[in-house]
Write a structure and sequence with these properties.
By secondary structure, the chain is of the alpha/beta class. The chain has two domains: about 60 residues, no CATH class; about 190 residues, 3-Layer(aba) Sandwich (Rossmann fold). Helix content is about 40%, strand content about 20%. It has eleven helices and ten strands. A five-stranded parallel β-sheet has the order 6-2-1-7-8. A three-stranded antiparallel β-sheet has the order 3-5-4. α11 links the parallel β7 and β8. α5 crosses α6. The longest helix has 17 residues. It starts with a helix and ends in a 6-residue tail after the last strand. The chain binds S-adenosylmethionine (SAM). The site of S-adenosylmethionine has 24 residues, from loops.
Length: about 280
């Protein structure tokens, strides 16, 4: 049975509160197709029965699964190519030069989904930071969704996954065959630490970052949430660091703590210098 307007509104409020994801009116079909299998798995006769359970004393696991089912996890290796080109040609040489005394780079891949993005970053570091073995290179990869993070930590990918963006030479160098798929090699995995983290809730335990990849997640949030998250990013990003957003995302008109910084065909963002007091 199709969702009633009241049921949709209740779910919309529930998902917004727990993830900041805005379910626009008209997304009823999406809700039904993603939650109907969950209703069956949890033994409810209908989606309506499942939604009735999402009250204050709801089962934690059910709530988590409902929210995670409403996330979109689309990703691929070296997605959109240009930011990775900018990393190779400009950002890494510059940051490595500036951090040569500290010999440490901290990168945050927020909303890392099933891992293709942080592993692409790790491979880029191994390929283009010749000092890699003697430096402390760390990529903190975070996502809201526990199930998705578990897959990312495993680092196993199908032929279809690697066909989407992984160049054959890098596939041969940084993956090992496993059954009919591939597994990321330990030297790549070692650079990435996966953590569960909700961008819409207070952030704890993040070190200062030199580079933040926050791609293709702000699109799901309200302008007020985007602004709050971007202001928080500003507070963890080094003064001379870089922020990379998705191709359809911008700080312009949302948060004036960043300025646009085109590099080749990519657009990155840098903190606006603080006025001297
Ligand atoms: C479309 S994927 C983007 C993946 C990757 N950044 C890329 O560009 O290929 C969006 C990811 O954002 C995550 N997400 C959604 N809401 C979130 C939140 N409030 N906090 C953290 N992650 C969230 C989802 O679980 C999903 O994995």
């Amino acid at each position: 049975m199709p969702l009633t307007a009241q049921q949709f509104e209740g779910l919309r409020a529930f998902v917004l509160e727990r993830s900041a994801i805005v379910l626009e009116p008209g997304k009823e079909y999406l809700v039904e197709s993603r939650l109907a299998p969950l209703a069956r798995e949890f033994g409810y006769a209908s989606l309506g029965d499942l939604l009735l359970q999402l009250g204050p004393r709801a089962n934690h696991e059910l709530c988590r699964r409902v929210v995670e089912a409403m996330t979109t996890n689309e990703t691929s290796f070296f997605r959109d190519a240009h930011p990775f080109e900018a990393l190779r040609t400009h950002i890494l040489p510059e940051l490595v030069g500036r951090r040569r005394h500290r010999r440490r780079l901290d990168i945050w891949c927020a909303a890392s989904s099933t891992g293709q993005e942080p592993y692409s970053l790790a491979i880029t570091l191994l390929e283009h930071v010749p000092e890699a073995a003697r430096w402390q290179l760390r990529i903190v990869a975070t996502d809201l969704a526990e199930d998705i993070l578990a897959r990312a930590r495993e680092g196993r990918y199908s032929q279809h996954d690697v066909n989407r963006g992984m160049p054959p030479a890098l596939l041969g160098k940084y993956f090992q065959r496993e059954g009919d798929g591939y597994r990321v090699r330990p030297e790549v995995k070692r650079l990435v630490e996966f953590r569960q983290m909700n961008l819409a809730q207070p952030w704890v335990g993040l070190p200062p970052m030199d580079l933040v990849f926050l791609r293709n997640v702000l699109i799901y949030f309200s302008v007020a949430t985007k602004k709050r998250i971007l202001e928080n990013v500003r507070s963890v990003l080094a003064e001379d660091g870089y922020l990379c957003l998705g191709a359809a995302e911008t700080t312009l008109g949302v948060c004036d703590a960043f300025q646009r910084c085109p590099i080749g065909k990519a657009v990155l963002y840098r903190p606006v210098a603080q006025p001297v007091a």
